[in-house]
Design brief:
With 190 residues, the protein is mainly beta. Helix content is 4%, strand content 41%. The longest helix is centred in the first third of the chain and has 7 residues, at 32-38.
Length: 190
């Protein structure tokens, strides 16, 4: 696998080595050994999958300590724009984001560390999206930012009138009204 560093330290894009022939293709989608050596020393404990249609936007979500989560995400059908926003107080990249297109075609994965809000919007007719999480879901520790915060300046790559949100995702705070529970100096991994 090739690790592509982004402009925010710790947020990486992972491109697998794909072996193709006339029968189809093969690639290793995950190796704990390689991941821990090349990306982050964390262990994944839960896998999730969602199915969504064009325009569905899920995010920008995170979990508060002590249930903070890292996510390793990928698309197995369709395409999304995936976004990670730095919400660590004191970080030189606080409030900045990385956006990457993930698709079944490019087979890229995106690592979103603890201390980041995460979201995606569906660019294809339909998508099947998979997450590996390094902590269990804890609903009482959910947090989120507004997807349309002008301070974040995220270009979601689809018209605003095509975006479909859950009722909960319509109500999140903007960055200017947000009190982060993460500090850049926190040790978020053992």
């Amino acid at each position: 696998m090739e690790i592509i560093k982004t402009e925010i330290e710790g947020v990486v894009i992972i491109e697998p080595r794909i072996f193709k022939d006339d029968r189809g293709y093969f690639f290793e989608s995950f190796s704990e050994k390689n991941f821990q050596e090349q990306v982050c020393k964390t262990g994944f404990v839960q896998d999730n999958e969602s199915k969504s249609s064009y325009g569905v936007l899920r995010g920008l979500h995170f979990q508060k300590p002590p249930y903070a989560q890292s996510k390793l995400v990928r698309v197995v059908q369709g395409a999304v724009l995936d976004v990670a926003v730095d919400i660590r107080k004191g970080s030189p990249t606080y409030g900045k984001h990385v956006a990457v297109e993930l698709s079944a075609e490019n087979k890229r994965q995106f690592f979103v560390p603890r201390g980041f809000a995460h979201g995606f919007v569906v660019l294809s007719d339909e998508v099947i999206f998979q997450y590996k999480c390094d902590n269990y879901y804890a609903p009482q520790h959910e947090g989120a930012l507004a997807w349309d915060d002008t301070d974040l300046a995220i270009n979601w790559k689809i018209p605003v009138d095509k975006i479909i949100l859950s009722e909960k995702d319509k109500l999140h705070n903007k960055l200017s009204n947000f009190e982060s529970c993460f500090n850049h100096s926190d040790k978020l991994y053992e």
